[in-house]
Amino acid sequence: MKLAAFLLSSLCAMAAVDGVVTNATTGKPQPNVMIMLVQPGQNGMQTLANVKSDAEGKFKIDKEYPPGPALLQAIYGGATYTTMIPPGMPSTGMQVKVFEATKDASVGRAAQHMILFEPSAENIRVSETFLFDNKTATTFNDPAKGSAQFYLPKNAEGKPQITVNSPGGMPISREAQKTNQPNVFKIDYPVRPGETRFDIAYTLPAGSSFAAKAPDPEVPTFLVTPPAVKLSGDGIDSLGEEPQTHANTYKVRTPAYEVKMEGTGSLRNAETSEAQEEDTGAPKIEITSARIYDKMPWILGLTLGILALGGAMLYRKGTA
Known about the structure:
The chain is mainly beta. It folds into two domains: 2-98, Carboxypeptidase-like, regulatory domain (Immunoglobulin-like, Sandwich), CATH 2.60.40.1120; 105-310, Immunoglobulin-like (Sandwich). 12% of the residues lie in helices and 43% in strands. An eight-stranded mixed β-sheet has the order 15-14-18-11-10-20-23-22, covered by helices on one side. Strands 1, 2, 5 and 8 form a four-stranded mixed β-sheet that branches. It has a four-stranded antiparallel β-sheet with strand order 4-3-6-7, with no helix packed on it. Strand 22 (236-241) and strand 23 (248-252) form a beta hairpin. The protein starts with a helix and ends in a 10-residue tail after the last helix. Mean pLDDT is 81; it is low at 1-14 and 271-320.
């Protein structure tokens, strides 16, 4: 018991954290950045300590914390940047990166917008996804307009559930906020350099149609349905069937559109069945962080179905 207590106290004593905050936009050390040491616990994230970086961007946290994963969260320019401290790894000399913020719409515009419909006898489950691919060295942050705006149909049931997955961070929930446009909501969350995904989920009454408007017509929108579900209506073009899951894909070509659905089905069920199939030795599909722009539109449509399952992106090379 004494040895165990000694080892535990030694691990805690080694848990002091220090490092440097660098502004990756300017390439210089960044002073006056709030750094928080947080650790996941049974009641969520626990803030253990916080300090500010000095004139040379350096910081030091003398707080001892229990063994296990911990995070450094740097707050700068209205955005939070997370750096993980893996268990058993040195917590000294940590390199924390932050970025300058911009309201330039070209930086914050989504690369793709996808909508998955899964009708059943009870309701129509709708899963919308915005994919951002920020290739700059700045963070897009515009609280007034939000990073993503979406149209919530009048017949939507309950509040939409929103999850944000950002580079190097953990999935977090966000509340949709009303705009001055009818039925248009915004999601206020900074888009950092790298790939960021906004997932929006809600339901419609069974048997209803789907009417929407594109808040930003410059963002291409794709619609996806399970194999047994077909869409019809003005303003959409069929892109055919995805070969592997046989999902039907469509591209929206007008700012406002309305579609009707025939049939019922779910891509979740198809994916579960596929996962339970016996291993035949065939090559496995790899989940990677490939570039968005090199993928076919209908592959992106399929991606939405995969995203809705568990938060993983499925990408495959193809000709745009």
